[in-house]
Structures are given as structure tokens and as C-alpha cells.
Amino acid sequence: MSFMEVTWIDEVTGKQGFLVIDRLVRGAASGGLRMRAGCTLSEVRDLARGMTLKEAVVYSPGDNYVPFGGGKGGIDCSPYDPDARGVMKRYVAAMRPLIEQYWSTGEDFGVRQDVLDEVAAEVGLRSTIEAALALLPDPEAGFARIKAAFAVEVDGVGLGDLAGGYGVAETALAAAARLGLQSPTAFVQGFGSMGGATARYLARAGVRVVGICDAHGVVACPYGLDVERLLLTRDAFGCMDRSQLRDCDVELPVSSWLSVPADILVPAAMSYVITAENAADVRASLVVEAANVPTTPEAEAALYARGVTVVPDFVANVATNAWWWWTMFDDITADASSAFGKISVTLRGLVDEMMDRALATGLPPRQAATEISRAKLSDLLVAVG
Ligand SMILES: NC(=O)c1ccc[n+]([C@@H]2O[C@H](COP(=O)([O-])OP(=O)(O)OC[C@H]3O[C@@H](n4cnc5c(N)ncnc54)[C@H](O)[C@@H]3O)[C@@H](O)[C@H]2O)c1
User: What pTM value is reported for the model?
Assistant: First the structure.
């Protein structure tokens, strides 16, 4: 049972928003805010549970950062809705007391951090991470470190939009090496914060990214896409500019996202996209979950039975969340090399730990990682008293 579940109804549009705090640790919970048409309370509850696992799984007693509990917000409104910003602002205004006291939040699917920051300021919040800042001896210094980290850009993309996907790419590379995949190819669904950075750092590591899908459809090329060029053509919704495609790039409809053969499949968009109905169409031998809850339990069981390895969301996409807190608690400095170094060591270590436990116990990777996270949560609850 969750610590708290809130359903909010927008007095202007009648649209609904939700906040689920799965668990508090040290009086605080962490987790992003998403916006999509059709978002439900049960989806947000699943996501909040995942956040508890995601927080605890990176617990390291040597760090200043001691993880929080998990929470998540969701608004049932398309980010393309003409009043999306207004709905988000009214939601944030309504949740303000909970943001100040318990819930530290940031961008998620359909929400951009810069817009969320603007909206928070308009409703009188200094930031959306007040509950976490309150746990620092010097909140002003912690907030300054976060602001400095968000000001960092790497080749035209902000570090805040890179940390998570860099972690997904490192996870994919580590898992592919463990599985003995030689010169793997990759397909990425979603080309926003998570998918964009994942594709960039897979390509930079020499992986051929043979297809990318955004809200408008698939762009594919068996020789490998020019990811760097495509990244810089994205609009505010993470969609590629098709006028910039090369002659060898082909366009396919959104629905054909599983038709492009690739060794590594990275779902980096919506939840519940790999289902019992389409699991047989997955041709990859490795699925790395950049998105939250992209694979239903039935689909995952079917994939496992076929020998397909699924690296769960709360391991693969942990880096954005952890990067905020490592920065704020001064475990890393506000630059890309410090961030990428910590992310790489942590994620590669976690993949090894998860795969070792999966091998030793015969459990699927998700169950092995869940055991690891729960054990770390117990340790950290003892540590914080
Ligand atoms: N941003 C983060 O910090 C973060 C951290 C961890 C996990 N996640 C998860 O990663 C996923 C993506 O989040 P994001 O922040 O990158 O979102 P985003 O809004 O930045 O990007 C979403 C991408 O998905 C694409 N998309 C939308 N509808 C689509 C469809 N029907 N088919 C294919 N692509 C479609 C969009 O065009 C865009 O490229 C979500 O599940 C989110 O929960 C995000």
C-alpha cells in the first residue's frame, strides 16, 4: 500500500492528475512528473513503486547521498494540448504543499525540465526539489550545484538531458558484453531526453543505431543512422526533422517499430509498449528499459522463456535521478566527466551484480535486481535509523 495517493481534477478543463508517494525515506520521496493523454492512477502507482526500487538500488554507504523513497506524478493530458502548460501549472500549484514537504520531482515523459522550472517559479516555488534540499546542511549550496550542473552542455545537449541516457547506454554496453554480443546493433523507441542520449552514447561507443522511432514514426537505416545530426534536428517534443534525412534513411509508420531487426532494443518512450500480444515480434536478444514500465509482466515472462534478457527500468534508467542527488549532495562535481564517471562505474557494477545474482539463483534479471534493491533498502533504513 502506498503512503499517499492523490487524485486532482483541474477546475478549468476537468482533466485529472495524480500523485502517488509509494514510500518516504528520511521523510522524502523522489520521482518525476509525466504528462500524457490516458495517464491513470494505476500507472502512476506502478511508477511510484519503481521509484522506490530505483532510489534504493544505488545506495552506497560511502556516498553523501542517502536515497529517498519513491513517488511519481502524472497528468492525463497530452503534452501537445494547447492548454498543456496551464494544466501543468494548476497541477503544480495544487501539489505545492506536498512538493514542499515530501515530493521532489523533475521531468518525465511529456514534461520538460525548463518548463517545469518556469511553472514552479510562477506558483511561488524556488524549485521542485524543496523536500530534498531541506535535508542538506546548506540547501543554498546544494541548489547552486544543481543549477551549475544543469547549465553544462555537451555538444549542444544539456547535461540534464544526457545523464539518464548515458546510463542506459552504459547499461546496454555492459549487458551486451556479458551476453557476448559481437558488434551489436540497436533500435531506440523514443528520441526525447532518454532516447536521444541513449542513441548518442551507443553510437559513440561504436554501436550501429539502425532505427529510431519518435511520435511521428520510424526512421531506419541498416548501415546506421547519423544519430548526432538527427539529435540536433529534434523539436521540443523529441521529434526528428524529416527534411534532414539522408537518401539511405527510410521512413516507416510508428506501428512498425518492432519490425526493424536489431540486437539491442531500447524502449525509451511510453509505458506498457511490449505486451503479450507483440512480445513474439521482439527480435532483439537484449531489451534495455530506458522507459519506465515498458514491458508488461506477461511479455517479460514470454521473452525470458525465449532467452531474451530484459534489463529492468529501475536499473537501466536510474542515472537521471541519481545524478541529481549525487550532484546535490556533493558526491560529484557539476561537470560531464565527473557525472559520466560515477554513472559508468555505478551502472556497470549494478549490471554485473544483477547478472551474477540472476546466474547464481536462476532468477530473471528483474527479480535478481529487486532482491538487490530490497536488501539495500533494508541496509539504508538501518543506517538512517
Ligand atoms: N526524463 C527523465 O529524466 C527520465 C528518467 C527515467 C526514466 N524516464 C522514462 O523514459 C521515458 C521517456 O521519457 P523522456 O523524458 O525521454 O520523454 P520525452 O518527452 O523527452 O520524449 C518522449 C519521446 O517519445 C516519443 N514518442 C511519443 N509518442 C510516441 C509513440 N507513440 N511512439 C514512439 N515514440 C513516441 C516522442 O516523440 C519523444 O521522442 C518515459 O517512460 C519516462 O518515464 C525518463
Answer: 0.95
